Amino acid sequence: MDEVVRLEHIYKEIEGRVILKDVNFSVYKGEIFSIIGGSGSGKTSITKLIVGLWKPTKGKVLVFRKNVPELSGLELDELRKNIGYVFQEGALFDSYRVWENVVFYYLEHGKHNKEELRKMALENLKLVNVDESVLDLYPSELFGGMRKRVAIARAIATRPQLIIYDEPTSGLDPITSRVIDKLILELRNKTGTTSLVVTHDMISAFTISDRVMVIKNGEIIAIGKPDEVIDYPHPYIQEFVGAIKSCLKHAKV
User: Fold this and answer.
1) Which of these, 42, 163, 201, 244, could form a disulfide with 218 (CB 3.0-4.6 Å)?
2) Rounded to an integer, what distance in angstroms lies between the CA atom of residue 191 and that of residue 159?
3) Cβ distance 176 to 139 under 8 Å?
């Protein structure tokens, strides 16, 4: 299987505090890989290393077989073109209309005219099941689930090989959360994009993921298929997922 991401013996310290300790894992092409854990467990720290916002204290961060900490600024920019990022709160630009948000990268870097960009925006919105009625709206005019869809459309606009979802169902009601789960699955199936999902949403993680990684205090507790991890004989995991086991049996996307 082709590796898209690989972390090797990663340690990260900040002001003498260990954030990540001997973290090792791979994410393979086309899979949905979810990282779960409590607040402060190290989930977001891992994504910062992958996109090159942080450098590890020790270890290798390989993305598309390139060691991210060793890349120059220009090389890092090239790498990031192949990574889509869906921020926890969507992070849409309030002063831009929906279509401008979706094609923001091309507004800043491309030479396309307005009509080409609007067409491009609509093509990406259709991939997340949104029609042209929202093109000229502002983010403030959208409800939470729709804002999340627009954020995902922006993330896929450059046709990245890897999409990182940071708490994609955060702040959404249970029904809308399952809609977003279904969307993540559909996008993977339509585009073949590799997905790395950071989430607190246990139902989401255990229903859409090919593999799940559980992290606590910067250390990996378990990695495996959802059915393997949910029954893993570790007290933290059983405490973490025990309360939702019955829900998971009936949860479908």
Assistant:
1) 42
2) 8
3) no
Residues 6+ apart with CB under 8 A from 93: 100, 101, 104, 139
CA separation, residue 50 to residues 84, 85, 230 (Å):
12, 11, 26
pLDDT tens readout for residues 46-90: 999 999 999 999 999 999 999 999 999 999 988 998 999 988 765
Distance in angstroms (rounded) separating the CA atoms of residues 88 and 91: 8
Please give the single-letter amino acid code of residue 183. Answer: L
Q: Which two tokens stand for residue 207?
A: 């229903």
Determine contact, residues 209/34, Cβ cutoff 8 Å: yes
Place of tokens 């791979």: 26
Helix axes 144-156, 174-191, angle to 10 degrees: 20
Query: Collapsing DSSP states into helix, strand and coil, what is residue 214?
Result: strand
Starting at the edge strand that comes first in sequence, how are the strands of the sheet with 194-199 ordered?
83-86, 162-166, 194-199, 32-36, 211-216, 219-224
Q: How confident is the model at residue 253 (pLDDT cuts 50, 70, 90)?
A: low
Residue 247: the pLDDT is 61
Domains of the chain by residue range: 1-82+198-253
CATH architecture for the domain at 1-82+198-253: 3-Layer(aba) Sandwich (3.40)
Q: Is 122 left (phi over 0), alpha (psi -120 to 50) or beta?
A: alpha
How much is the pTM? 0.89
